[in-house]
Design goal:
About 0% of the residues lie in helices and about 55% in strands. The protein contains no helices and eleven strands. The strands form two sheets. Strands 2, 4, 5, 6, 9, 10 and 11 form a seven-stranded mixed beta sheet that branches. A four-stranded antiparallel beta sheet has the order 1-3-8-7, with no helix packed on it. It starts with a strand and ends with a strand.
């Protein structure tokens, strides 16, 4: 199995910055890609950004130029650097790992970390 632990959420003012971290443990070698999703109450969880095993990154249009996904392979940790945050970025942010275990495409999720953008 894969375990994911997020940290770094909190309250931030509009225009400010925040960095989320996601530490992975367990069957690291089974992970093909990792990413960040977010969810607000009453809405579906939505993709924010992903990073593949090869390091290819992808982010959705609403965060391009503001959020950056990166990783430290030595620490098995993925980061989401959030700059120029807006009130609409307020959500619970979840770390995701796409794994080959127990079957191809299996998704692991962290417990979530709340980000609130407010003055």
């Amino acid at each position: 199995q894969v375990q994911l632990v997020e940290s770094g959420g909190g309250l931030v003012q509009p225009g400010g910055s925040l960095r989320l971290s996601c530490a992975a443990s367990g069957m690291i070698s089974s992970i093909n890609a990792m990413g960040w999703y977010r969810q607000v109450p009453g809405k579906q969880r939505e993709l924010v950004a992903t990073i593949s095993r090869s390091g290819t990154t992808h982010s959705v249009d609403s965060v391009k130029g503001r959020f950056t996904i990166s990783r430290d392979s030595a620490k098995n940790t993925v980061y989401l650097q959030m700059n120029s945050v807006k009130p609409e970025d307020t959500a619970a942010y979840y770390c995701n790992a796409q794994s080959n275990y127990p079957w191809s495409g299996y998704n692991y999720w962290g417990q979530g970390t709340q980000v609130t953008v407010s003055s």
